[in-house]
Amino acid sequence: MSSRLLGIDFGTARIGLALSDELGLLARPLETVPAGTSHPHSLDRIARAVADHGVAAIVLGVPYLLDGRSGEAARRALAFAETLRKRFPNLPVHLVDERLSTVEARRLLQQSRRPEAGIRALLDQTAAAAILQDYLNHSGGDPPLLPPPPDEPPHQR
């Protein structure tokens, strides 16, 4: 059985995907999936990635506000987590606090001296890789618990 994990950076316009190696040590960018109402097949693209790569679990970033509360983006990500759980009932969906992951992804891509157009094209999947790598670095084999923000009840993984 595969131990690959799929990392997701959820956005309303684009969804970044990243994949772990078989050992669960390293994350790498995979692809960017168009999202939103003009792209209703984004879940099908995610399902294809799950099937093609033998994904055993999903790691979804939740963009809490810097003070730990939920803003609109976090609420949308949590709703997307429920959509993923319904679409993939046999896969665990782990939630990770992803504050500043896009900032970190942009910094890494700028260090690679890519032109701005190249940065934009890779930003979401690089952010997904940063989210997944953070999960891999801190999980120690067990899924890290994401504490709910102070204004929300606990969510199940």
Give your account of this protein's structure.
- This protein has helices at residues 42-53, 72-87, 101-111, 116-139, and strands spanning 4-9, 14-20, 27-34, 55-62, 93-97.
- It is α/β, with parallel strands linked by helices.
- A 5-stranded mixed sheet has the order 3-2-1-4-5, sandwiched between helices.
- Helix 2 (72-87) links the parallel strand 4 and strand 5 (93-97).
- Helix 3 packs across helix 4 (116-139).
- It is globular.
- The two termini are 21 Å apart.
- The relative contact order is 0.21.
Overview features:
157 residues; alpha/beta; five-stranded mixed beta sheet; 4 helices; 5 strands; 22% strand; globular; disordered C terminus
Short description:
The chain is built from four helices and five strands, in the order βββαβαβαα. It has 157 residues and is an alpha/beta fold.
Biggest sheet architecture: 5 strands, mixed
Q: How many separate helices?
A: 4
The average pLDDT score comes to: 81
Strand content: 15-25%
Structural class: alpha/beta
- Strands, count: 5
Order of helices and strands: EEEHEHEHH
Low-confidence stretches: 143-147, 153-157
Strand order of the largest sheet: 3-2-1-4-5
Which shape, going by the Cα principal axes?
A: globular
Helix content: 40-55%
Termini gap: 21 Å
Cα-based radius of gyration, to the nearest Å: 15 Å
